[in-house]
Amino acid sequence: MRKSTIVRITAAALTVAMLPALAACSETVPKVTATTSATDAPVLTEAQEENLRGKILDVLKKADDAKDANALSERVEGPELEVRSSQLTIAQATGNLDPHATIPDKISQTVIPTDSSWPRSVFTITTTTDDQQSQRLLVFNQDSARSNYKLWGLVRLFQGAQLPAFEVPKLGSKMGDADDSGLVSTPADAVAHYADVLQNGGNSKYAGDFNDDQLRNDLASLTATVQKGIEANAGTQSQTFTVQPDQIKIMRAARGGDLVVAQINSEWTRTAGEGRESLPASDAEKALFGGGTATSSMKVTYVNVVALFIPTSDSGEKIQAVGAERQPIKVEAQ
């Protein structure tokens, strides 16, 4: 019997899942505060942050221009290494780098830690891009005194996102821990519970602990759209979300609460009906699938980097996702 192909999801619809719709928005970084209880000096000056950021962006620009990920590890690590490598692999096949990979040179604010131990992280918030995409939250990490700072994570802030206030760079902020107390949830639990909410939506027992956010809403909308096409072809789909161990960075806000950036990987499996093939559903998926042979089932692996603000336990507030990055990194037939 001649095989017929499963109805393809439009590339426009799939883009919603890969990258939350981060439209042009006004910059929402709050003013920093000059009040601090920190006793240690910040580990960097603003000039040093600008210098290290410039060196990292230079490496990224060279890789982007060459559409070659080989040199990234010099200044990129963690989830961002997986995300950027995938973006460059796709660019090699399509001829164009995704505009969402743009990182502005200018910044609105940098949050410099006072912690004298390693590893240590710097959180930097950029301006909007020249084409009015949303601000980026960059997380730079230094593993040891002798290692270079590297770009560990990048999150695109949601439209209208409100970030907490942090100490001015001359005073510095304290990094948090995965088991920080005095919050509505420890950072580790908040990330695990958010992964459950991404997977189960309103059916998650933790759904009530989080405010609505753009990533959750876009994923729900995309899943519903894809489901219509899959049902028409007697197929199925499923998504699983898994927290990546130790891939979490935390900065304590000036007036309480933690800003948490963490990696949650996901697998989206789509199965066609009997006698049908499940095919790549976008140019990005085609590029990652390469010359693979299609079967009735296809699995797409994503890296999701999320930013959550966890308020204090006495605030009466819920956990709020303020930004995310979502990128397919592998496409394979099952």
TrEMBL record:
PROSITE patterns: PROKAR_LIPOPROTEIN. The keyword NAD does not apply. Keywords: Signal. The keyword Signal applies. It holds the Pfam family DUF8094. Residues 41-321 form the DUF8094 domain. Residues 1-23 form the signal peptide. This is DUF8094 domain-containing protein. It comes from Bifidobacterium tissieri. The lineage of its organism: Bacteria, Bacillati, Actinomycetota, Actinomycetes, Bifidobacteriales.
